[in-house]
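Hello again,

I reread your note about wanting to compare the complex against the isolated chains. To keep things tidy I'm splitting this into two emails, and this first one only covers the full assembly. Below are the input lines as submitted, including protein chains and any nucleic acid or small-molecule components. They are followed by the predicted structure of everything together. The single-chain runs will come separately.
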Amino acid sequence: MQDISAIDKASILVEALPYIKRFHGKTVVIKYGGNAMLSEELKEGVLKDVVLMQLVGMRPVLVHGGGPDINSVMEQMRMKVEFVNGQRVTDENVMEVVEMVLTGKVNSSIVKYINQNGGSAVGLSGADANLLLAHKQRARIPTPDGGQQMMDLGLVGEVESVNVDLLNSLLDQGYIPVISPVAVDRYGESLNVNADLVAGRVAAALQAEKLMLLTDVEGLYRNYNDKTSLISVLPARMVEGLKNQGVITGGMLPKVDCCVQAVKQGVGSVHILDGRVLHCILLEIFTKEGVGTMVINK
Amino acid sequence: MQDISAIDKASILVEALPYIKRFHGKTVVIKYGGNAMLSEELKEGVLKDVVLMQLVGMRPVLVHGGGPDINSVMEQMRMKVEFVNGQRVTDENVMEVVEMVLTGKVNSSIVKYINQNGGSAVGLSGADANLLLAHKQRARIPTPDGGQQMMDLGLVGEVESVNVDLLNSLLDQGYIPVISPVAVDRYGESLNVNADLVAGRVAAALQAEKLMLLTDVEGLYRNYNDKTSLISVLPARMVEGLKNQGVITGGMLPKVDCCVQAVKQGVGSVHILDGRVLHCILLEIFTKEGVGTMVINK
Amino acid sequence: MQDISAIDKASILVEALPYIKRFHGKTVVIKYGGNAMLSEELKEGVLKDVVLMQLVGMRPVLVHGGGPDINSVMEQMRMKVEFVNGQRVTDENVMEVVEMVLTGKVNSSIVKYINQNGGSAVGLSGADANLLLAHKQRARIPTPDGGQQMMDLGLVGEVESVNVDLLNSLLDQGYIPVISPVAVDRYGESLNVNADLVAGRVAAALQAEKLMLLTDVEGLYRNYNDKTSLISVLPARMVEGLKNQGVITGGMLPKVDCCVQAVKQGVGSVHILDGRVLHCILLEIFTKEGVGTMVINK
Amino acid sequence: MQDISAIDKASILVEALPYIKRFHGKTVVIKYGGNAMLSEELKEGVLKDVVLMQLVGMRPVLVHGGGPDINSVMEQMRMKVEFVNGQRVTDENVMEVVEMVLTGKVNSSIVKYINQNGGSAVGLSGADANLLLAHKQRARIPTPDGGQQMMDLGLVGEVESVNVDLLNSLLDQGYIPVISPVAVDRYGESLNVNADLVAGRVAAALQAEKLMLLTDVEGLYRNYNDKTSLISVLPARMVEGLKNQGVITGGMLPKVDCCVQAVKQGVGSVHILDGRVLHCILLEIFTKEGVGTMVINK
Amino acid sequence: MQDISAIDKASILVEALPYIKRFHGKTVVIKYGGNAMLSEELKEGVLKDVVLMQLVGMRPVLVHGGGPDINSVMEQMRMKVEFVNGQRVTDENVMEVVEMVLTGKVNSSIVKYINQNGGSAVGLSGADANLLLAHKQRARIPTPDGGQQMMDLGLVGEVESVNVDLLNSLLDQGYIPVISPVAVDRYGESLNVNADLVAGRVAAALQAEKLMLLTDVEGLYRNYNDKTSLISVLPARMVEGLKNQGVITGGMLPKVDCCVQAVKQGVGSVHILDGRVLHCILLEIFTKEGVGTMVINK
Amino acid sequence: MQDISAIDKASILVEALPYIKRFHGKTVVIKYGGNAMLSEELKEGVLKDVVLMQLVGMRPVLVHGGGPDINSVMEQMRMKVEFVNGQRVTDENVMEVVEMVLTGKVNSSIVKYINQNGGSAVGLSGADANLLLAHKQRARIPTPDGGQQMMDLGLVGEVESVNVDLLNSLLDQGYIPVISPVAVDRYGESLNVNADLVAGRVAAALQAEKLMLLTDVEGLYRNYNDKTSLISVLPARMVEGLKNQGVITGGMLPKVDCCVQAVKQGVGSVHILDGRVLHCILLEIFTKEGVGTMVINK
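Full-complex prediction:
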């Protein structure tokens, strides 16, 4: 940081006033994943942002991912890591490791980090008080001919309902819920669920003001090669067209679908942010222009 | 302000984290007077600082002075303005003007300013729900021979009790109480009271974390002519000595006595701040070193 | 008072039972102005009535006027007092005096009187927590040919909204709100507002059981010269006809319009009372017949 | 009642202000028995007084007696009515009738009367939620030689504890508890208890402001034949002396002992009132001098 | 009871889990009358069942009958006991005895029994806080020719409204309300009301999960002589047909009408149980099959 | 289970009444470990017992162990499993696996099982809201000569404080907290802690009524070979003597020390139960004699 005088620092705090006021008491769900979880500096940035949000009166909720850790433990255990079109093939043995790593390692580590930095977090998995109730679901896999095929990848699920009572009571008491994306079905079986989709469902269930997806891209580009073509605001009704034009493709497709679904279910706005940028969350909330791409229900 | 990048702004917000956390839910009483009331820029600085304090979870209470306005209205009304040793001679007619100006003009103006800037203030005078109950008191006036003389300056009073119920209920509902230093005695008669002393009594009654007196000096100097001799921390037990050494004299005497009494009655610390410095309140709260002179109960 | 035995006194208290029961917990807004503010005996009568109302479980709210005091201070300050058709011409200098006198003198005096007589009052102006939010409005002035003309009288406003949260929280805690008819616009500028209209808006916002306007007449007469023609109950739907018949004219026109608007917005009944009659408020509430003219929504 | 003008009636209400204020929220226990239960006019007087007390914010609790009704039902059932020294001999059959009459007839009748007159009463016996838990006790009977003898009169008990939770919750919800003096022991057996003593224990358990015993005498006289010798205020410490002087004798002895015990256990004051005087309760509360004899803890 | 091992006992408790869970927080109204009130063993069974219901989190409310006790006291008082078609002829003298016995004897006895067995009951009659407000009603008496005739049986009433506030507040505090079927009309006069109908109205007013009528039959039989023809579940829409077929006749007619009305007004189900079977309430609630006849709104 | 009639089942439920009543609202902490975690039947027994406890109004808290699972995952990951005197040597790599298995596998599995069986559990580790704050501690290892030696086994800790706020708020909302025995130190580092000791500290912090340690022995024997010498009740003051006599030795030493410490810190009683007996928890609570050994503070 450049050298900034105390007076200027005070002015910057005062500049934040209208944003603090506007988001006071508002719920913000953050999907925390990708590179932002790998660098210590970025991790520190994200989690301090979350603590600040809570201290100035917002109600942040974290949903985390955790792919790399799962693979490394599986490898250590000599288990075969298998993906089909980016989705993990999950039998019972794999599911046990997924749950163990996400809930017992990644989640715990985030909780401890927040608590070390002035916040107070409580880790949750979808099993806690049936927080994330899901059912098994076959995956939608693209075929070479451009069509789609339903495929059984094992213990993979889709969230049906979210226990908002537990979340709201923790938020009311000043705790930051940190959610591991492991759901449970009606028979008590654990299911692997996509963290983006969990974040979307949680945000919808809480009728959150904002959902923020931390990704490894700057946002959505009209033309991926032209860095000046970033789409700042994306009305949901324009998404279908952009898909047809080939602007939204590949891994962005499910992410954008998740955004659209969330705003249609009542989330104020969804933000695709670049988790590789330090303090990207605060930048979105506390600056006039915002950063990344904002999806709104229009 | 110099040109500061968005990232640096975010870092500055994050730097404030430990201070926000530390003062969350804490009551801070501010005596607002002197030059800080006269310049529009300083006024804006002080009142935005107060709004920020409230938004990040503190419970600020303002007590204001208002001398110059009283004199100007009195002059417009062709009334004689009379002071003995810095204290206003206050007969019934004068008291009526004092009350009218402090409560109906100065107080209203502060309330409106805060409400315009994102806060929510409620103006109070000592008469409201007997907020400041006082009794008449003769003034202590120094004699030429260095002694003291009790003198009746009219409707001048000393606060006996503070109705904390009213203050706490307004604070609990998120309002900033702005207090006009007009007290009322048991017979319903208004009394002129010193704003510093009111602030001290209010802070003690609320068991405030901090009392901040905005003055027109940088703080207390060990040697007034040596700007490097500012006393940063002044333990109450050392005050008597400094008086004897002639370090604390003149107008500073009652101010320092007020500070000592407040910390002895349970206020965490009292700060003599330079109201002529922009954002002096935030600087005190959000920087490691603090500014001005802090009196503590040691 | 004639000599009344203790037993008879007890019987009178018991006679009040059904009225106390009926109005328990009900909000009653009182516009206090005119002669009832000028005589010490009448003032004592009104304010003790208000304290009694509160003690037996009603929720009284006072809105006061204050014309004579404003004029006298303006004259003392050598300012020109100017009215057009009964409405004060209000430039910035005048507004400052209006606010100072209403909020800093008249309001304070009522608050102190109530607190001296067993009640607990809190004075408010429209600026407090934006209690009375208004916009500037040109006045409707009759022309010699019987028409109307819009005229700019300066900082004169019309109330848009009332912050009932502040009023209800004070009432819930057992305080009597005393409201000075100075409103504030969205830019923080003070506006002079008619006290009758303020009382009407406050009563409507609180969905009051009763609004009582203390005036200097016995009520509305069908024939002003025939003292037996007092209209006890006036259904709102009959007002238009009475205007056309010339029964309601002059200064009574805006007052009756205010009454009609209040009952149409949900106030139970509006009472035009003779503030020159001692205890006129209690007489209206605690006697079978009531006094003055009652406007109802029929 | 003499002819009293409306204005005078209003003045009388206003005169009651300081008393209403003083007793607001205070608990007053009334032992209702004797002649005040027999005349319709007196009954109406007492119960309307109680309703008024509640409406102006006091918390009245009624404990009733009921001797004559018991005797008349017993006679109708051809049962032998037997007293030893004023205390009923109570076997199981008698107890059943006592309970049936007190709880099913006298209590119900009072409850209905209060509910008809604007109050809201709930009848209770000592069995409800073990309101009055007692143990069997032999009676203390005077012998001809001036001594005392313990005598088993059957199912006669002494109250050990009072379930104040039930009473306070009913009072908090605005109900007037009406208590039938039938207690219950640890084995679920009903016991006949003296209504004065029940009222004393209830008042002590509730830490009542006042206990009022409605009797058939004007109060306590220093010399019973001299109507000017009524004792207005009787400090508890003087009772022993008055017993020795023969001023307190016979049926007054247990009543005065009950008063002394109540004030010693924290009841503010106990009043021996003449239940034959219309509105004796209001006269005591709302007049400066009070009536009857007041026992205080001095 | 046969000899059952501790382990088996524990298993039985665990078996009750799903039923405890299902009825947690649910209101169940029980009409307690007939033989179940006469045998000590059955009484103990019923009331212990009720206490258990409360302890495991249900909200039981009891409405009792009491015919035999009334007759026996009336006979002891040499009063004429007169019935027309099973309904008591009730003049003022009879009503006084009915109230005295039901409220002062039967109700008290149940309250004491519950309190002795680990529960906490509060006895209520319809007069308490106007719990059961009724109006006088002529009885519907069958004529020899199969028609009906309206007949004035005196102080007999029909319930109009139930004060659920009082019941809910007692239930919320963990008390079991025990209701004596004596209602009160708008003039404060007591009226005799049918206990089945009171239970039905109370259950409807509380929107109870279940209403249980304890009778002296096993339930409703399709063919009374064929013990295998018990109707387990009776949809309300089939009642009319069964009446026409002569399956429901005589004393069962009003009982079944009461059941139908209750389920139509929102009670979950109504159960006609055999009060002569020990623990019939628990058997209904805690066994898969249930016992007796259940009327449902289908 | 033998064939038991419905009536007998109802009687058994009723027999439980006094125990349900006695423990209503009481907190019971259960250390769940050993064989009771290995057999499916026993697991079902323990967890259904816990659900029943909650449904009948108790506040159960579970602390679990989990040794075998840790070893098996470590072995699968080719890590060396090392114990010194029964305590695990825990370096950073081991700690990561311990946390992952206990929190992400064992804890989750218990939570899911409870939720499947009618309860509502929330899994917690010591990191959540700093539930278990600990510091690193060297282990006390016996030396061959009968002395003791302090030994550094790595990341092994001792609990300093328990965040009862989080536990109480979950209990108040009807959740069963399931605690994984992983603590966290002031620097955010995870520490391995003994589950018995965690259960003891949690029970003390909650001032629990009972602490139950599920073990693989019937209880404490005076003479281990004589099965009739089971000690039912063990006053804490006698423990020292029994140690000296060699009655308490080996693995029982730390367990009994933990019991003694818990009762000395305010836990009502501590029970050493045989987790191999089906429904051992219910047997302890719902039978007169209790099972196992109960340590009390006498």
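For quick reference: Chain C is about 40% helix and 25% strand.

B.
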